[in-house]
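Lab notes, practical 5.
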Amino acid sequence: MPEGLWWLPSLVVFGAAGAAMVGAVVGARRLGARRERTALDAGRSLEVRAKGLIVQADNAVRDAEREVEFAEVQFGPAVARDVHDALETARQRLREAFLLQQRLDDAEPHSAEQRRTWSTRIVHLCESSLGAIHEAEAALTARRRAERGAGEGLPALREDAARLKRRREDAALALERLATRFPPAALGSAGSAAARADAALAAADSALDEAEARMSRSEPAAERLSTATDQLERADRDLAEVEGVELELAKAQSDAAAAAAELDAELVEARHERDRAEDAAAQAALGAAIGDASAVMIARSQSAGDPFADRDRLRAARDRLEVARAAARNAQGRLDGARGALGGAIAIAESQLRVARAAIERGAGRVGADARTRLAEGERQLIMARQEPDPVAALDAARRAASRASDAEALAAYDTMGGGR
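Output from the prediction step:
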C-alpha cells in the first residue's frame, strides 16, 4: 500500500463503527415506536370507558338538577341540601373530567403513559360523582317512602301513646301502694324513671300533634313521627324500670334477710375467736368489728327501712367482720407457730452455748473479751426466751441466743489460734 494511503484502513474501521451505531439508534427508535403504538392501542379500551362514564355522569348531573328542584318544593331547602351538595361536588369533578378529556382529544400528540393516567383519572372522577349522586338520591327516595307511610304510621303511634299512658297510670298506683311500705329513698330511682316517662310521653304527644298538623297542610311529617317514635321507646324503657321496682324491692328484702342470717352466724364464730385470741391487738380489732356488726343487727331489728340500704349495710358489716377475723386468725397462727418452734430453738441455743463455753475454756487466757461478751449475751437471751410469756418474742430471743453463742465460739477459736495477738 502506498505510504500516502496509510489512513485508509482506519477510515474503513471508523466508518463501519459509525454505520453500526446509526443502525442501532434507528433500530432502537423503531422498537420504541412499536412499543408506544402497542401501549396506545392497549389504552384505547380505557379511553372508551372514560368517555362513556363522562356521558353517564353528565346525564346524572342534569337529572340531579331537576331532582333538587323537586325536593325543595316537596320538603324544603333543608332536606334538599344533601342532594344539592352532592350535585355541586359532582359538577366540580365533571368539570375536571371534561378538561382531561379535552387534552386527550386535542391535536397535540401525548405519550401512552399520559393518556393512560388521564383516562384513569377521568374514570375515578366520574365514578365518584355518580356514587355521590346515587347515594343522595337514595336517601331522598327513602324520605319519600317514609312520607308515604306517615299516614299509616300516625294512628299506630297514637295507639302506642295511649297504651303507654295506661301503663303510666297503673305504675303511679303501684308507686302509691309501695310508698305506704317503703321510705322515699327506696323508691327514688323508680320516681326518677316515672318522671322521665312523663316527659317522654309529653314530647311524643307534641311531636304527634305537629305531625298531624303538617299532614293536614300536605307538608312533610316523617321527621316528627320519627321523633315521636324515639320518645315513646324511651317512655317504654322508663316505665319498665318503674314496673320492675316491686320485684327489685322483694329481692332486696330476701337478700337482706340472707345477709342478716349469714352475719349472725359470723358473729357467733367471731365471738368464740375473740375469746380464744391471745394477741391483744387482734383481739381488740376483732372486738370492735363485732361491736359494729352487732349495732347493725340491732338497728335493723328496731326499724324497717330501705331494703337496698339494709342489704348493703349488712354486707359491709360482714365484710369488715371477715377482715377482722382473718387478721385474728393470722395473729393466732403466728403465736401457735412460734409456740411450736420455741422448744427446738431453745434446745439449739443451749447446745450452741455449751459448745461456746467449751471453746472458751480450752482457750483459757488466750480468749479475749469479745468472745466472752458474746457468750454472756447469749446466756442472757436464753434466760429471756425461757421467761418471756409471748411465744413470738421468746422465739426471737432463743434465736438471738443461738446466734450470739455461735459468734462467741468463732471468736474463741480465732483467739486460741493466736489471731487476736
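Observations recorded by the TA: The chain has eleven helices and no strands. The chain has a mean pLDDT of 81.
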